Amino acid sequence: MTNRDVDAVIVGAGFSGLYATHRLRNVQGLTVQCFEAGEGPGGVWYWNKYPGARCDFESIYYSYTFDEALQREWRWTERFAAQPEILAYLNHVAHRFDLRRHFRFNTRVTSAVWNEETNRWTVRSDDGSVTTARFFINAAGAFSVFKKNDFPGQDDFHGTVLHTSQWPAEGVDLTGKRVAVIGTGSTGIQVIQTIAPQVGELTVFQRTPNFACPLGNRPLTDEDFAQAVADFSRNRQESRNSIAGAPYPRAVRSALMDTPEERRKVYDEFYNGGGFRMLTSSYYDLIFNPVANATAADFIREQIRERVHDPKLAELLCPNDHPYGVKRATFESNYFEAFNLPHVHLVDARATPIVRITEKGIATTDHEYEFDVIVLATGFDVGAGALARMGVIGRGGRKLTDHWAHGQRAYLGIATHGFPNLFHINGPQSAAALFNNPIAIEDSVDFVGNLIGYLDSHGHTTAEVTDLAEDRYNELVREVADATLFPTATTWYMGDNIPGKPRTPLSLFTGAPMYRAICAEVETTGYAGFSFDGENRPLSSLIKLDGSAVFFLAGLQNMGVKPLEDCTLEEARAAMDSFKHMQLPVADDVSIVDARYPTEGGHRKVRVYRPPVEGPLPVVVFNHGGGWIGGSLDLYDEPCATLARRVGAVVVSPDYRLAPEHPFPAATDDAVAAVRWAADHITEFGGDPQRIAVAGESAGANLAAVVALRLRDEGGPQLQAQVLITPPVDFLADTESRRQFAHGPIISMELAMRMASLYLGDPANAVSPHASPARAEDLSGLPPALVVTMEIDPTRDEAENYAQALATAGVPTVCRRIDRLCHAAFELSGAIPRAAEIHTAIAEFLTPLLSAQLAATEPALG
Fold this sequence. Notes:
alpha/beta; FAD/NAD(P)-binding domain; Rossmann fold; 8-stranded mixed β-sheet; disordered C terminus
């Protein structure tokens, strides 16, 4: 028995454990003690020696990037490396960076207990040693605990039972044997296609068929390797900025934008392109739009039918009970062709379930099959299953297993409340499930290393995620999942592939760039959501943001959409108009008619929306957003049509002049002219000129507020209400929300100031109440106001201050803040379902107000 005190205990010697050891010991100079249950490095690649074990990310990407010399000196031999080569690579890494001497191999951690008096972890191992450490690093990986056999009778079997993750190192000779394989996930497919040519008879028990695409493996040529070395820096950067952590082509179109012929051409290219390209590079909406997804699923099923000769067998191999991509993507090399061999058979284990393992083989509900060997390719208890078995006890004696009784959860996939200085590398609810793991591991380890460095440099002893942060992040993970198709399937992604295991998403399904952005924001804001020695840090913006909005922003990142701050004027206008594709369909029972209204710059288009309601109806003149430089009538078709239906009003949407071609006050003049046109002409469209309200969103809300001021001062017509959605009302405002959300999301202060400059022309115009209505000396006599703000929005505070100023001036005012939403949510109804709350707030405000006005103007009967 030995006792040792170190800075950090690290568990695991796979990609995670090796890099964590290198980073903490060799880079940061900490003392470390590492434990590994295997005889040497490798992690999942040490244990999984089954036939055909192979990575499905290209080997040149499925490797470390922290050391360019390492990348140059290791020569991969195949496009997709097999298990022996990956294991050799990890052993090379361990030797090159002198990591082995920090490990105790063949040693399992049996308990890890937090000592609240010493603020250290006490870690015991099965060799009798006790190690104390400031930090406990879980680098055991998500695939370190295999799923146990569910079928009774295994001990009765007279042949050999093998689990793929416990395959004998010396191998097994299956030549001429009668072999059963249970399971057709990633592992099962690799085993089946590899052993099919050598066994005497192969019977596959399949419960759920999978959408397997060709892997596209081949030898890696000298030219391939030379190109990879030359492109190292570019590939490293592109990998970190791509959805899956590899420099694949970006999907930038919806599957529904192409004709069937165009889609087939795209699918042909990426289906045969190798790796994850079919899922990540064809169309951006496969993972959240069921109609788009069905086009890909149908294509893959067609390929299966073409490749499997027996039509009935082909149908059994075609997945029909889940969308494409919501189970872990699987890849194959002649897997489907294996079923054309006369000695390969398929048993539908869903129609005829396995009852038990018998002395001779396997009994289903209708037959007993005889075998020499049974291979269990039944997967893993994915997540932090290994850690849960280590007897981890945190603050107050709380067991980790109790904390996770309702589902594994970890802030950023890194920290767990109640367990100070315990950090997971790619733990539960990280983004690693859909992310090239070596790069994901480097990001996770670097975050932990930086956090430890921050803790030490600021004189702190402990770092622990707050309960608020852990709860909110868990909600965010669920909200993002709900924006996708992942919850529609039973899968380890959702934590429900193990009977009795609570169903909860085990990954943040945003793709790598958004996950990295969330972590970066947490880090740059002083580790938001963490508590240092009991001092809690507030949540960061992206953590607080509604999950559907986060998923939308992630989509923009994954497509490589240029930030508006970096766009030219025309690019910015096109980017704004593209939001139309993120909206619900326009209500088909709303009549939409274009007309023209006079302005000082000539006649301009005005669009009128009339719901299927008997008139005369109240009128809402709605000014679109777009920062005074963009936006369009087409972009606001859906919001305006929905507003017409929800309020039961005729909605008038004017096309006003945009800056910088037409700077201030052109837009305000047009907005006033539109209301006057409506007062004169709205009866032609079934509207009531005595019941006109003005409304707008963002820059359009600024115009609506200015219109209310000008019509009060310039002789009308009289307005019955004003609805201001996220209005910027003071160009010179200095507010907490402008500072807190200076970088957005959606709109940053840099972008806002650039738009303001283009709109105002002369900076002196910023003080004009016709540009900054909050600077008006007198707000009395204005129509009743609804001010709608978003919690995560730079304009929030100035808008809420304006609402307070209106109320103080005697204007009946309702101010409604919608929590966890951001600027521009109003025009993103298809992407952000909670945008409907804005329409609800408007309807609740306007409907009784305009109805009351109708009652007041109707003559008395009798």
